[in-house]
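On to my pick:
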Amino acid sequence: MNDSKREAVEPGHATSESGEPATSGALVDRLTQARAQYAREWGTGNAQQFGTQGHYDWMAGFLRGRNNVLEIGTGSGSGTLALLAAGHTVVSIDENPECLKLARQKLNTAGHAATYESREIIEPDQGTYRVRYRKSASAFPAAGALLLEGDVLNDPALIEWIDAHRQFDAIACWLMGTYFERTRNTAIAELAIANPGDYRLRVHRALSEMASRILPRGGVLHLVDRGAPPDSELAIQQHRNYQAFLTAGTTFTVVSMDYVRYDEPRADAGPAIKLTPSSPGQNAEPADTTFISVLFQKT
């Protein structure tokens, strides 16, 4: 689930208007609606503006010379589109089917081949739900993009597929975020994830471990988030501490840390996903409209 930031709250049980636990059908309907709203708001409120401003092209520029890219968090497909336009072959993962549907439409409209594989099985249980994923039947794409439903925090079959297809030169995770109804997922609740910062930290650490395992020597992990620019000693140290946490126990080193200013969508321009801190301990301030790029390389 990429391309996004949404305010999150503490996990809890879904209830109906009467205060009773939501039925299985109501819970699935609510989840579907939340996913669709999330995909729509990010796609039209944020990603479209960032794409028009050239920021996804800027992100893709850090991966020049890398043929096969594993993208974690498809979002509305704007990042995927930039990667395909730059000549990469992409396997893109997102747990939100509504995002993947929008992404496939976007890529096909732009003339790119994009295959989408649905894998999830939702199992509601007294106001919460769990997702199981079928084994992927997809082959590694020769070109274009393969869009897979999956969850790097709760999808053993996905990890198995990735481990079996070690053809990646890079892993990219740009603008990672989540949405409220995801807190009903028992796998997320069991990880004690209570806010977007916790979620990104968990995902980033999982990707660091994955990258260390599957990428060849010289392969890169590329993370981009929104937040405070590293333009002071304190900010730089905060970023370094976060990077040290991500690379602990791996053979990755930081190759570069770059940032660029961008414009947040205006409040009167329609619904959009709100800015949240890019790492624990940071505050989201209106002036901190910065994309921060960190490129790690396996040694």
Summary: The mean pLDDT is 87. The radius of gyration is 18 Å. DSSP finds eight helices and ten strands in the chain. The domain at 24-298 is CATH 3.40.50.150 (Rossmann fold).
